[in-house]
Every structure is written in C-alpha cells, then in structure tokens.
User: Fold this.
Amino acid sequence: MSGTTKIDFCPYCGNKSEKILIHVQSYDDVGYYTDGLEKGCECVYRNHDFLASCKLCSRVLIYNTHPPRSGEPEDFLLSKRVFPKDSLIDYLPPELSSMYEEALKVEQHSPSLFTVQIRKMIEAICYERGVSKGNLYERLKEMTKRNLLPGALSEATDLLRKVGNIGAHEVNGGIHPMEVDSIKSLFTAIAEHIYIVPSKIGDFKNNYQQYREWARNADEQKNQI
Assistant:
C-alpha cells in the first residue's frame, strides 16, 4: 500500500495535491439486482473504501469505486472521492457547475473571492432562468415576481447580493472567514429549490414504473421460497 498516490482536489485546503493511500477498509454492503430473474431482490456484495490523506494539509479523505472492484491498492487510482463531497455540483447546469468549482478552490483561501464568485453565480442563475435585464437587484425582483423564487429565498438571494458587494469592494471590513459557511448554506438552499428538488422529482417519476416492477418481482421471488 505504501507509495500509492494520486492527484486530486482537496476541499479542506483548496489545493489540487497528492493524496496518499493510508488504508483500505473492506466490508459487506447491501444492494439490489436491477435485471435478471432476481431483479429487485436484495444482494450482499464486498465493498471497499480507500482512506487517504492530503499531502499538503494532512486531512483524511475517503474514496470509493463504482462498481466495486477487488479492493487492491491500485484500485485507489480509479476511485472517486465520496467524503467530503459536495453533491450540489452534480445537479447544477454545466456553466454553473464550473463556476461552483472555481468558488470551492478559493473557499479556504479568500472569503472575499469566494463570496464574489457566489454573487456571480446568482447572476448566472438569473440569466439561465431567462431574467437578464437590469442590475442584479432588479433581476432578483423579477425572479420573485415570476415565482421563480419564493419569498424566503428571495431574501436569501438579496443577502448574497449584498455580501457579494462587500466582498468585491472590501467595505465594512470585508468578509470574515466565519461567514463563509453561512454564505455557502444560503446558496445551497437556493440551488436546492431551483435545481436539486425538481431534478429528484423528475428522477423518481422517470423510475417509478421500474421501481414497481422491481417490487413485484421481489415479492414473487419471496413467495417461491
């Protein structure tokens, strides 16, 4: 295991750096067959988590492969980070996803730059939703008028607009590092309403009939035992 490394982004220190494999944790996991006579039935398989440390900040990260592989140290090179992981990036449109990646890179180094990038993303959301006229304050008002933002989230976006201005112009002392988590949480709440919830509803509706088929087949298999 010693000497197995890979280059990956570290969300702790914000650097793309060497990750050193320190342990492979193997365990039995539970899943479900998706095809064949046993589709929908429970199955147990061997899974493997790869624990690694960042060479720059020494924080621990967890990686995994999907589908599971043999758990050899070399599989670490094919694995993807599962902790810590910001799932928001998977639901954003490509342009916003790229902008969010840039925000994460400066999150730990520059609260002001992070906040300015979040403000830019609010502008991009307005544009992506077809609201492009006027300044950001006017765009957010129009988003609310069109029911694209409920009242509470309208207030949240306006707060991000204001702190984004502070980050850009460094007035009132600039952005304190302790503000970053709150700013990120507010933006996540907005993105969840606009992108994540509709996406999850769509996924469930698209897979509903397949879920019913799996459930019926699993019951049939149980009755045959």
